[in-house]
Amino acid sequence: MKNWRIEIKWGIIFVVAGLVWVALEKMLGLHSTRIDQQATLTNLFIIPAVVIYWLALKEKRTSLGGSISFKQAFISGLVITLVVTLFTPLQQYITQTLISPDYFKNVSAYAVETKMMTSEEAAGYFTLNNYIMQSLVFAPLAGVITSLLVGWLVSRKKKTA
Fold first, then answer.
1. What spatial distance separates the first Cα and last Cα of the chain, rounded to whole Å?
2. pTM for the full model?
3. Per the count of CB atoms within 10 A, which of 18, 59, 61, 104 is most buried?
4. Residue pLDDT, tens place only, 113-158
5. For residue 156, what are the β-bridge partners?
6. Signed CA dihedral, 54, 55, 59, 62: sign only
């Protein structure tokens, strides 16, 4: 566990950043009056997500004496991804019950108004269980891709004298 302290710390930072992001979306009206913009603007979270992985892997590199192989960086990123994925159900629960309890009602109404879904389809799609399942698929997929990219960018070979 001690070997993974950095990854666990940054995984938790990632989860907290995700909750802060959702709270910001709610405050900006993206879960109510500007719900039509939410699906697009939520994708901007990729910026802080990549920054968090970059900072985490830089800290890992520093802890290893200033050099880290691509494999080490990638594995470190995968451990962060595992932490994030494990917290995903709790993160979704907090999001949908504490931060934005009206989100499903609002997004369902929007989907029906814009004829993207029928009322029945929206009721079945916009549920906590469905969002948890989607997140449990998306978090590891996005984490692997981010770990590959950032791992490649952060990797540094040992300097020889």
1. 33
2. 0.93
3. 18
4. 999 999 999 999 999 999 999 999 999 999 999 999 999 999 987 6
5. 68
6. positive
Give percent above pLDDT 90 in the chain: 94
CA 55 to chain centre: 15
- C-alpha to C-alpha distance for 147 and 7, rounded to whole angstroms: 12
Angle of the 46-63 helix axis to the 5-27 helix axis, nearest 10:
160
Rounded-to-5 percentages of helix, strand, coil across the chain: 80, 0, 20
Number of Cβ atoms within 10 Å of the Cβ of 24: 12
Specify the residue for token string 């451990």. 79
Q: pLDDT over 70 for what percent of the chain?
A: 96
Q: Alpha-carbon distance 87 to 101, whole Å?
A: 19
CA angle 146, 58, 153 (to 5 degrees): 50
8 A C-beta contact, residue 131 and residue 92: yes
